[in-house]
Amino acid sequence: MAIRFFSDGVSFQLNGKRKTSQWLRQVAAAEGKKTGNLSYIFVSDEIIRDINKEYLQHNDYTDIITFDNSLGDTISGEMYISIDTVRINAKEYQVNFRDELFRVMVHGVLHLCGYRDKTPEEKHEMSLAEDKCLTYFL
């Protein structure tokens, strides 16, 4: 079981992969889950929009799309993250790029752990969980 990081269509490399992987395992454990195979694929806005159109029938940009392959208490999945959108959102929310990237990364793991974000209440719960998880990394 592994956590892997890839880039497709963007020249981006994640620094601190080992520490990041340990943090993501800690997040899963705090939610009562084990980590299976997790793949983070860093992509451009164009690629994430194509994925969004093909698999979710949405013709817009987003920061992350998570494909869940979890079984039981073991979370597994592929998470496509638009580096372009993360940069834009970091500026909009006036946070540094790294903090916004980690928020998006943990957002994907929380989806695999069962969190949803369709309703205002679910979005609020997800945001609180993200904030809590981000403190684990410090």
CATH topology: Collagenase (Catalytic Domain)
Which sequence of SSEs, written as H and E, runs from N to C?
EHEHEEHHH
Radius of gyration: 14 Å
The CATH fourth-level homologous superfamily: Metalloproteases ("zincins"), catalytic domain
Structural class: alpha/beta
Biggest sheet: strand arrangement: 1-2-4-3
Secondary structure tally, helices: 5
Profile the largest sheet.
4 strands, mixed
Q: If classified by CATH, what would the architecture be?
A: 3-Layer(aba) Sandwich
Mean pLDDT over the residues = 96
- Look at the structure and give the CATH class: Alpha Beta
Helix content bin: 40-55%
The overall strand count is 4
Low-confidence stretches: none
Tally of discrete structural domains: 1
| Beta-strand residue percentage | 15-25%
Q: Report the end-to-end length measured between terminal Cα atoms.
A: 25 Å
Shape: globular
Task: Name its key features.
4 strands, Collagenase (Catalytic Domain), 5 helices, four-stranded mixed sheet, 138 residues, alpha/beta
Notes on the protein architecture:
The structure is a single chain. A hairpin with a 5-residue loop joins strand 3 and strand 4. Helix 4 crosses helix 5. The protein is α/β, with parallel strands linked by helices. The longest helix is centred in the last third of the chain and has 18 residues, at about 120-135. A 4-stranded mixed sheet has the order 1-2-4-3, with helices on both faces. It has one domain: 3-Layer(aba) Sandwich (Collagenase (Catalytic Domain)). The protein has helices spanning about 15-30, 45-55, 85-95, 95-110, 120-135, and strands at about 5-10, 35-45, 65-70, 75-80. It is globular and about 35 Å long.
